């Protein structure tokens, strides 16, 4: 059901922002719409998701209307801090958003459009399980304004999918990509590497299959074992091996080699796009510290340095809104040092890089050592930016430590 929410100070019942927060009219704004439903729980997943037997008092068929209540509340809260801004990106994540009827997703998007407005070139993404994608579903989403579909492929190898508890038919990935293409949508496919029992050749097969689908964007994430998940328990009992760091590094290098040869450029440590126009602008908004409002149970938001997050369970979320209260559970306002650390952590991961001027003065001397170690690009550093090399991407945490500790 997802990791525990972070600690923080209690959020006010009406959701009001602190009086000193003023939102500039030209500050970018994004929207995240969380759909917390899944048919089955994958063994590695610690996202805030629920199967039908876990809902306990929450109704999946009423979810869209419930979330739209939060949209109305957010508009009232933000209007007190400045003019409402059109959303430059909207992202339906989960969970499995396409477990809801396409009409429900369309109504949620229409609510965002009618309340905040959408930028003329807004990027509207829906995450999808391949088994839930049909020509009719995609056509309805496209008609509602969706511009992009992110398809959870994870692997092309049946035993790897089984290790991850992924139940979709691998053949349906190509069907889903074709349906999205026919509707005029941009397509991203998501991959995971380092599953128990996955070999380098298994990973090569998945990469080559993904490339053969000719998507616009590919994400490739190393499997991370999250505490409390089924996979973590299996590893602790010795039933399956833990991920091998050296093998995962080899897998990353293979991904960069094959994707680069196929015309994809990395723009974030785990993301490759055919060109700049196919980067995920929504995810870039997170990495660049923009404002966003996350709607739905457990969703997190960020407005001008203030972070807040909603209650986790869909039933508690619905009850708060039905009572006319904000679903926000708590909030925090990181201090300047914490924000600098976060800025280094996030911006150093993207190809556009981190301005050296954003690094604390007493840590800028570390840049020379990072160049000498081959972790950051020398030419970019001389131009005033920290940009990771391939070796630096493999050791990104070490780069962050060098620039912050």
UniProtKB/TrEMBL annotation:
InterPro entries named among the record's database cross-references: Aldolase_TIM, Coproporphyrinogen-III_oxidase, Elp3/MiaA/NifB-like_rSAM, HemW-like, rSAM, rSAM_sf
Q: Which NCBIfam families match?
A: hemN_rel (TIGR00539)
List localization entries.
Answer: Cytoplasm
User: Which Pfam family would be a valid example here?
Assistant: Radical_SAM
Query: Where does the Radical SAM core domain lie?
Result: 23-265
Protein name per the record: Heme chaperone HemW
Q: What does this protein do?
A: Probably acts as a heme chaperone, transferring heme to an unknown acceptor. Binds one molecule of heme per monomer, possibly covalently. Binds 1 [4Fe-4S] cluster. The cluster is coordinated with 3 cysteines and an exchangeable S-adenosyl-L-methionine.
User: What UniProt keywords apply to this chain's record, in alphabetical order?
Assistant: 4Fe-4S, Chaperone, Cytoplasm, Heme, Iron, Iron-sulfur, Metal-binding, S-adenosyl-L-methionine
What family name appears in the similarity comment?
Belongs to the anaerobic coproporphyrinogen-III oxidase family. HemW subfamily.
Q: Where mainly found?
A: cytoplasm
């Amino acid at each position: 059901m997802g990791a525990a929410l972070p600690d923080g100070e209690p959020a006010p019942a009406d959701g009001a922002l602190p009086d000193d927060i003023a939102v500039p009219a030209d500050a970018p704004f994004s929207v995240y719409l969380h759909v917390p439903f899944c048919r089955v729980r994958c063994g590695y997943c610690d996202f805030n998701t629920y199967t039908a037997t876990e809902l306990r008092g929450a109704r999946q068929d009423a979810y869209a209307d419930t979330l739209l209540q939060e949209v109305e509340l957010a508009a009232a809260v933000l209007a007190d801090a400045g003019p409402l801004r059109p959303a430059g990106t909207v992202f339906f994540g989960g969970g499995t958003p396409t477990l809801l009827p396409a009409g429900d997703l369309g109504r949620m998007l229409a609510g965002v459009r009618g309340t905040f407005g959408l930028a003329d070139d807004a990027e509207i993404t829906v995450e999808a399980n391949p088994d839930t994608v049909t020509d009719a579903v995609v056509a309805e989403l496209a008609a509602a304004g969706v511009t992009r579909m992110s398809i959870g492929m994870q692997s092309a190898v049946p035993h790897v999918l089984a290790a991850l508890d992924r139940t979709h038919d691998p053949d349906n990935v190509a069907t889903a990509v074709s349906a999205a293409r026919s509707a005029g949508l941009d397509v991203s496919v998501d991959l995971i590497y380092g599953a128990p029992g996955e070999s380098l050749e298994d990973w090569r097969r998945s990469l080559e299959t993904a490339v053969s689908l000719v998507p616009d964007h590919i994400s490739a994430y190393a499997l991370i074992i999250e505490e409390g998940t089924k996979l973590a328990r299996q590893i602790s009992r010795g039933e399956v091996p833990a991920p091998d760091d050296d093998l995962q590094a080899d897998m990353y290098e293979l991904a960069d080699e094959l994707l680069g040869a196929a015309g994809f450029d990395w723009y974030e440590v785990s993301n490759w796009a055919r060109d700049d126009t196919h980067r995920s602008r929504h995810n870039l908004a997170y990495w660049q510290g923009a404002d966003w409002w996350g709607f739905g149970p457990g969703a997190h938001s960020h407005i001008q340095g203030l972070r807040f997050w909603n209650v986790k369970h869909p039933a508690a979320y619905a009850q708060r809104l039905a009572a006319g209260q904000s679903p926000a559970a708590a909030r925090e306002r990181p201090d300047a040092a914490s924000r600098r650390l976060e800025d280094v952590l996030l911006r150093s991961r993207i190809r556009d890089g981190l301005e050296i001027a954003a690094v604390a003065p007493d840590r800028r001397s570390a840049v020379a050592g990072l160049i000498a170690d081959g972790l950051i690009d020398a030419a970019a550093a001389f131009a005033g930016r920290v940009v990771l090399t391939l070796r630096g991407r493999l050791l990104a945490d070490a780069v962050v430590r060098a620039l912050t500790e």
